[in-house]
TrEMBL record:
Organism annotation: Arthrobacter terricola
Stated name of the protein: ABC transporter substrate-binding protein
Signal peptide: 1-22
CDD domains from the UniProt entry: PBP2_clavulanate_OppA2
PROSITE patterns assigned: PROKAR_LIPOPROTEIN (PS51257)
Keywords of this entry: Signal
């Protein structure tokens, strides 16, 4: 899932222990296996709080890409979405650990047939929409059907859809008479999924926002983002795009059906246009004791690292190493030669890029967006230096006799200085190869829409926070570099537009291959590694987030997947 960082698989994450490094340590880098070289326990701010009431002010530098669960592949939307929508299952966060898949709207995490091709879920009794009408299996099915309309919802998550035996179904709009036969609703509380091949991690796919119920008569297509009909503890009271959002309690949410969300505050008020520098200053100064932020790395600026140890600040810092990675996606349709892409990777000073992120307090260098804790994980030995040092001579040698673009664009979301400053490092590094890099700022709310369009820059920073199963190689490897649903081109979340006739076909075939998680994880690792060695992406930073909160905030933990304060459990002293 991409983060703006893009939630590009968005609903749950890469599995690894939450590790981190204390400020001031030397930079040993990250082992080639993807394992961290140091570990540090996560920090939770004032846990154990249970008092209801009060308001939390959420300071953000830009609006959400969308609030529509059917068009969301972003971690920030998934985080706030916990407050107003529920899915069949839920990826429940625990500080410092990959999330656990638990029942949400459903009574359990699903019942599978002996052949592994059919999964059946039963809705809890008494679950309702915000208007008091009952949530039915037909509403869940309709929510899933919407996500097949990729011509309308360009960012709809596709992992669940790819697993279904859906034929050529294209959503409910082009042909309203068409039926998604892969999903059956024999009665109001039962929903049955038919898969192409067994998929052991299907309960994790059911935690994706695809399965958020949508009442058909309330579907306003792209305008649904303005007021998605709530199934969670809160609902939209007011929303001014790019300015503010207010969530209030949903009177028809029954806590007896939802042990996963504590729903402590009465309201959440979001400011959607505050600069990150201002957010950082306000949180550090505690000028609003009820404030938090969902911005990447807590909106902290590079110069703020030393302030985290101040006596008035250190007890208000939630922190932890995440399942989130930043990579550089190289547009393989523009930079077509793998040797040229490799040369770019070798020329980069990734140590300097880490400095732009704030140093070891804010992340660690990584060799892969996968992780050694995943089932069946196999390491890929890339030739980029694990400590981040450039290999300029090797890069120049690779380019001898090559024809390659002498001008490239680097696109970055304009809401964080680290992203722009990374571009400056790239610009300086590639100048030594005779390549002029032009920096292109992109408005943060539109960032991943641009990456999915004809305006895709040649080099783009992407954030990846993992796949639907915390410990599955597939649910990260497939979205990042895998093919589309029919195997004919690059996939939806594949921002490098990587497609290789052999490797992509092997990935497509693996979607329909049976075996144990270990066996399949090994095969996915090997195919992903083949792709990675052609450098469609360049691994950069695995994020260590520090998020300062106001002094009245309680239960503040950094979500391993969300990369920000987990809104489902946070509270406020009032």
């Amino acid at each position: 899932m991409n983060t703006p960082s893009k939630a590009l698989a968005l609903a749950v994450l890469i599995a690894t222990a939450a590790t981190g490094c204390a400020a001031g340590q030397s930079q040993p880098g990250t082992a080639a296996s993807g394992a961290s070289t140091a570990e540090q326990a996560p920090e939770i701010v004032k846990p154990g709080f249970t008092t209801k009431g009060g308001n939390i002010n959420v300071l953000m530098s830009s609006d959400f890409q969308t609030l529509d669960p059917g068009n969301s592949n972003y971690v920030q939307t998934a985080n706030v979405g916990q407050l107003y929508y529920r899915n069949l299952t839920m990826a429940k966060e625990t500080a410092g650990q990959p999330p656990t898949i638990v029942p949400d709207l459903a009574t359990d995490t699903g019942q599978v047939s002996k052949d592994g091709l059919t999964w059946t879920f039963t809705l809890q009794k008494g679950v309702k929409f915000e208007d008091g009408s009952p949530i039915t299996s037909a509403d869940v099915k309709y929510g899933i059907e919407r996500t097949f309309a990729q011509d309308v919802y360009t960012q709809a998550p596709q992992e669940l859809n790819a697993a279904l035996d859906a034929g050529g179904y294209k959503g409910p709009y082009k042909d309203p008479s068409a039926d998604l036969k892969a999903v059956e609703t024999p009665d109001a509380r039962t929903i049955v999924f038919h898969l192409k091949k067994p998929f052991a991690e299907f309960p994790a796919l059911a935690s994706r926002s695809n399965t958020s119920p949508v009442p058909k008569d309330k579907d306003t297509k792209l305008d649904y983002t303005n007021h998605p009909v709530s199934t969670g503890p809160y609902m939209v009271d007011s929303y001014s795009r790019g300015k503010s959002l207010k969530l209030v309690r949903n009177p028809n949410w029954d806590p007896a059906t939802d042990p996963n969300r504590s729903a402590l505050p009465d309201t959440f008020t979001f400011s959607l246009s505050t600069s990150q520098a201002t957010i950082s200053q306000q949180l550090l100064a505690n000028s609003d004791p009820n404030a938090i932020t969902l911005d990447s790395n807590g909106a902290l600026q590079t110069s703020d690292a030393a302030k985290l140890a101040d006596a008035q600040v250190k007890d208000r810092v939630a922190s932890g190493l995440l399942g989130c990675n930043d990579v550089l996606s190289l547009n393989t349709q523009k930079i077509t030669d793998p040797d040229v892409r490799k040369a770019i990777a070798l020329a980069l000073d990734r140590q300097s890029i880490l400095v732009q992120y704030g140093g070891r307090r804010f992340g660690e260098l990584t060799q892969t967006p996968l992780n050694s804790k995943m089932r069946g994980y196999v390491a890929t030995d890339l030739e980029i230096d694990p400590t981040g040092k450039p290999k300029l001579d090797e890069a120049k040698k690779l380019l001898e006799g090559k024809t390659y673009p002498k001008t490239l664009t680097y696109g970055y979301a304009n809401n964080r200085d680290a992203y722009k400053n990374t571009g400056t490092v790239i610009q300086q590094n590639l100048k030594a190869l005779g390549i002029d890099v032009q920096l292109v700022p992109i408005p943060a709310p539109n960032y991943y829409s641009v990456l999915a369009s004809d305006q895709l820059p040649d080099i783009a920073r992407s954030g990846w926070c993992g796949g639907a199963d915390p410990a599955s190689v597939r649910t990260s490897a497939d979205p990042i570099l895998g093919p589309n649903n029919d195997g004919t081109s690059y996939g939806f979340s594949n921002t490098s537009r990587y497609f290789d006739p052999q490797v992509s076909k092997a990935m497509f075939d693996l979607r329909n291959t049976t075996g144990t998680s270990e066996e399949l994880g090994k095969q996915w690792s090997e195919e992903f590694g083949k792709a990675l060695k052609t450098y469609p992406i360049i691994p950069l930073i695995r994020t260590h987030t520090n998020s300062v909160v106001g002094s009245n905030i309680r239960n503040a933990q950094v979500g391993y997947f969300f990369g920000g304060i987990d809104l489902s459990i946070v509270g406020v002293q009032h």
